[in-house]
């Protein structure tokens, strides 16, 4: 019995350790990459998602080796700390943050910034790497602090950041744009880009490479059934009144 339990727990452990089970906030590294405007990346998010800040996430945190994964559609607030490489060290005089929606996979390759695994961080000591779509019309060109006079260049390339999982419906710049939310409907089961995944099976993508079956329908039609905040508060008031009497 004990041996069976041990084997089972080892099995569960090895299945769980395939991807990085990251906390809702922590430290990560941030790189940037170019993605054409209106491009449909790995998750299959609507083309207009590129009109707002988006990012790719490193493979072992993204949760799939190809196509969509559990990170698709999630929103993160990223706060710049300092560049990973700067000599002398550079400390920005302002604190800059940005909220990104994950629309793409940053493929694993050992030694790369997206090379973090459950057991090995990347060269910045981070298990997660966000790859920001930048430059982009959605982000000011001077988003990354710099000191060209001192360093002779503007772009430090890789930054240490603080990340925090946030609600896309509340915090993402594209939240009011229906054409930017959700997955491309025509791609059917080949796309998965929830508007605001919470981790539940109904609104979070499975791992495509784990072949977890059919993803939830994440085309943006589901956005219209969302209950507005004022209604939630109104209903809450009615319910609390009912209990009062
Ligand atoms: C996913 O990629 C990693 C790293 O290249 C590899 O070790 C792993 O076997 C791959 N998993 C699947 C399911 O293809
Ligand atoms: C999302 O909905 C809008 C209308 O509300 C529509 O124009 C747009 O094409 C939809 N996007 C997708 C990817 O289905
Ligand atoms: C997911 O959706 C199904 C069908 O609509 C429902 O029966 C189930 O309770 C939902 N699960 C969660 C965790 O919300």
Automatic annotation (TrEMBL):
SUPFAM superfamilies to which the protein is assigned, alphabetical: Barwin-like endoglucanases
Superkingdom field: Eukaryota
Expansin-like EG45 domain segment(s): 40-173
Keywords: Signal
The keyword Signal is annotated on this UniProt entry: yes
Pfam families from the UniProt entry: EXPB1_D1 (PF22514)
First and last residue of the signal peptide: 1-17
Name of the protein this chain belongs to: Expansin-like EG45 domain-containing protein
